[in-house]
């Protein structure tokens, strides 16, 4: 007889673990044990533990590194078939992508959470968690890296963003759709994400690697970019307008920053579509000529993770190195 798959659930906080405090505000307060009803869910045996208990709007790079280490530890355990991470939705796209970048195992990692808190009259967390466990337990999930399972859909980490603040199904994959669904407790897959070779885990230097984002808008100038450099930024991503455009002030700053050895990435403030270095007069063509690295169609907050990880590992990102990711 085949044994039940074993799924390890790591809890980090988020709305799935939140309830109202004495000031009437929702805060992460429940642990892994409170989220699970028993030690067998669907067709899987489950063991859970708390890694932290925080709203995902409170996570820093150190917390992300600790989550990466916890997940890597579970994946290395021969008795574990898949890992689920419960997590706030606000920054789930960052954690999921960082986990995917370092994911070297064929075992799946599935993030999930909730849009309504645990003490809501109709919470969505319990159902989402059950489905995430089903996805992580599925032999069909093997080789698909890190995913997000939410409201019945399974998304590849890369390219997936929180696209709605309150909708029960808030995630969308830019330039694509879900790679699978969980139906009646069974995960089904439609496609296999393309994933580059895994990078090494974030080192302790990741905690203090600073990558800031500055946004281009009518009237924007270089003041915030200069402040970021002053604050010690190792990398700065320009959230350009349209296909990735700046202006003359941002261009002059980019020339100086690149000369000074700061990594300057070029992304866009538009939710979907690639950066195309096309325009002059401070547009993307000029920025790239000045040394800004075009970040393709990788969502901007995921691009921030990629640059932070590479920089923390002592690498100097260049277009050839980034090509497989963006
Ligand atoms: N739905 C959620 O989980 C949002 C929450 N603010 C968090 O990210 O922790």
Automatic annotation (TrEMBL):
Single GO biological process annotation from the record: asparagine metabolic process
Domain of life: Bacteria
PROSITE patterns in alphabetical order: ASN_GLN_ASE_1, ASN_GLN_ASE_2, ASN_GLN_ASE_3
Keywords assigned: Hydrolase
SUPFAM superfamilies: Glutaminase/Asparaginase
Domain Asparaginase/glutaminase C-terminal, chain residue ranges per copy: 210-317
Catalytic residue list: 15, 15 (o-isoaspartyl threonine intermediate), 89
EC number(s) on file: 3.5.1.1
Reaction catalysis annotation: L-asparagine + H2O = L-aspartate + NH4(+)
Enzyme's top EC category: hydrolase
Domain L-asparaginase N-terminal: 6-191
GO molecular function annotations of the record: asparaginase activity
Record-linked InterPro entries: AsnASE_II, Asp/glu_Ase-like_sf, Asparaginase/glutaminase-like, Asparaginase/glutaminase_AS1, Asparaginase/glutaminase_AS2, Asparaginase_C, L-asparaginase_C, L-asparaginase_N
Gene3D superfamilies, alphabetized: 3.40.50.40, L-asparaginase, N-terminal domain (3.40.50.1170)
Family according to the record: Belongs to the asparaginase 1 family.
Record's protein name: asparaginase
Organism, as annotated: Paeniglutamicibacter gangotriensis Lz1y
């Amino acid at each position: 007889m085949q044994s039940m798959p074993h799924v390890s659930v790591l809890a980090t906080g988020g709305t799935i673990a939140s309830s109202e405090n004495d000031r009437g505000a929702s805060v992460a307060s429940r642990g892994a044990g409170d989220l699970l009803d028993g030690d067998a869910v669907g067709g899987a045996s489950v063991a859970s533990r708390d890694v932290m208990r925080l709203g995902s709007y409170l996570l820093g790079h150190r917390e992300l590194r600790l989550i990466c280490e916890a997940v890597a530890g579970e994946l290395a355990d021969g008795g574990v078939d898949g890992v689920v991470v419960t997590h706030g939705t606000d920054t789930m796209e960052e954690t999921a992508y960082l986990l995917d970048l370092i994911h070297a195992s064929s075992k799946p990692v599935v993030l999930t959470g909730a849009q309504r808190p645990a003490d809501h009259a109709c919470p969505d967390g319990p159902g989402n968690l059950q489905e995430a466990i089903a996805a992580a337990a599925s032999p069909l999930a093997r080789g698909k890296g890190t995913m997000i399972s939410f409201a019945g859909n399974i998304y590849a980490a890369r390219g997936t963003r929180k696209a709605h603040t309150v909708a029960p199904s808030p995630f969308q994959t830019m330039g694509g759709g879900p790679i699978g669904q969980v139906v009646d407790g069974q995960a089904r897959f439609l496609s296999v994400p393309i994933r580059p070779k895994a990078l090494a885990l974030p080192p302790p230097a990741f905690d203090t690697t600073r990558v800031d984002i500055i946004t281009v808008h009518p009237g924007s100038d270089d003041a915030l970019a200069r402040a970021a450099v002053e604050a010690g930024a190792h990398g700065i991503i320009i959230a350009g307008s349209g296909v990735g455009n700046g202006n003359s002030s941002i261009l002059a700053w980019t020339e100086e920053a690149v000369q000074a050895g700061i990594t300057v990435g070029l992304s866009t403030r538009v939710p979907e579509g690639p950066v195309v270095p096309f325009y002059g007069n401070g547009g993307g063509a000029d920025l790239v000529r000045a040394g800004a690295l075009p970040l393709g169609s990788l969502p901007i907050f995921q691009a921030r993770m990629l640059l932070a990880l590479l920089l923390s590992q002592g690498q100097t990102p260049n277009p050839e190195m980034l090509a497989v990711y963006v």
